[in-house]
Specification:
By secondary structure, the protein is of the alpha/beta class. The protein is built from ten helices and eleven strands. A seven-stranded mixed β-sheet has the order 1-2-5-6-7-8-9. Strands 3-4 form a two-stranded parallel sheet. It binds iron/sulfur cluster.
């Protein structure tokens, strides 16, 4: 039974090909990030910052989580992710620890890793069961071109931070490599990234490209057949799962189904109609009518990408 309460930080759950059913926890305001990637899929203006703050009280996040669990919420993972960089929340480690106190569901941190040069960020990240960091470049220039990072950041410090974290972390370290045609997709570029990634001895490497609509409409996804070939350059061999995972209404206990919940969800995760229908537990025509209304009021946009129609929240 979905709640009518509007959840500020929880969203989903979303079915992820890698995590299963994943309840999202968004700890920062929309698109607050230390990168401004060309390929970003969050369709709102960026706030580029390295300042770590208590953007939302940890007690509020715990209260939302308790409400969702008490209402029968189930997921395979609780994932710090969303519309910006979760490590920018000064107490994200306390959030991970608080989740562990309340549920055995595995805790996942999806981070760009830009702040892993800071010891306190690495210490907080140790509270997760799975940590995913991003490595899509091989030196300062390539990193600046792909991610457009905050000017205070340095690629070498980020990479050194990944090594320091690997040495301490007992959980699963995943490395995501995001490839964009014309930026970092030549075999020579990918070999350099693969060498760096291998040095981190990750349990999993994910090779991704722009499967959902990017803000920069000039960004071109790498062909999936090419991705599969490049995957063999990595150790372990990278997985190339892409696209939206199938979802069914029976398995989703959405954190909320109000218009605010739906828009907040679509800001963080652009989705096709059938996913929206599953979240709403509604037939596709009813979900389409809701989306039409929100589109007319300017709160939702329709984007076509790779022949598929996605709905996304927010005005660019
Ligand atoms: S893709 Fe991720 S890391 Fe890059 S700007 Fe968007 S939210 Fe930040």
């Amino acid at each position: 039974m979905p709640s009518e309460k509007h959840f500020r930080t929880l969203f989903g759950p979303i079915r992820s090909r890698r995590l299963g059913l994943s309840l999202g926890v968004d700890l920062v305001p929309e698109k607050t990030c230390c990168y401004d990637c060309h390929f970003c899929q969050i369709q709102v203006r960026s706030t580029l910052t390295c300042e770590r703050r208590d953007y939302v009280p940890v007690a509020d996040v715990m209260s939302e989580l308790e409400g969702w669990l008490a209402a029968g919420g189930k997921a395979d993972a609780i994932t710090l992710s969303g519309s910006g960089e979760p490590t920018l929340h000064a107490k994200f480690g306390d959030v991970l620890a608080g989740i562990r106190e309340r549920t055995p569901i595995r805790r996942v941190l999806l981070s760009n890793g830009a702040l892993f040069g800071q010891a306190d960020v690495r210490t907080a990240a140790l509270q997760a069961d799975v940590v995913k960091v991003t490595l899509s470049a091989w030196d300062q220039n390539s990193w600046e071109s792909v991610h457009r990072p905050h000017p205070n950041l340095r690629f070498r410090e980020v990479l050194d931070g990944f090594h320091a974290f690997r040495a301490e972390f007992q959980g699963e370290l995943w490395v995501e490599v995001f490839l964009v045609a014309g930026f970092n997709d030549t075999e020579a570029s990918v070999r350099r990234i693969a060498d760096l990634a291998a040095g981190l001895k990750p349990q999993r490497i994910q090779l991704s490209t722009a499967t959902r609509p990017p803000v920069d409409r000039q960004v071109v996804a790498v062909d999936h057949a090419v991705l599969r070939q490049l995957a063999g350059l990595f150790l372990p061999v990278a997985d190339t799962l892409g696209g939206a995972a199938p979802v069914s209404a029976d398995e989703v206990h959405a954190v909320g189904t109000s218009d605010d919940d739906l828009v907040a969800m679509l800001v963080r995760h652009a989705a096709p109609l059938e996913h929206v229908a599953a979240w709403l537990k509604a037939p596709a025509d009813q979900a389409a009518a809701r989306l039409d209304k929100l589109e007319k009021s300017g709160r939702v946009k329709r984007l076509t990408h790779d022949g598929e129609t996605y709905f996304t929240g927010g005005k660019s």
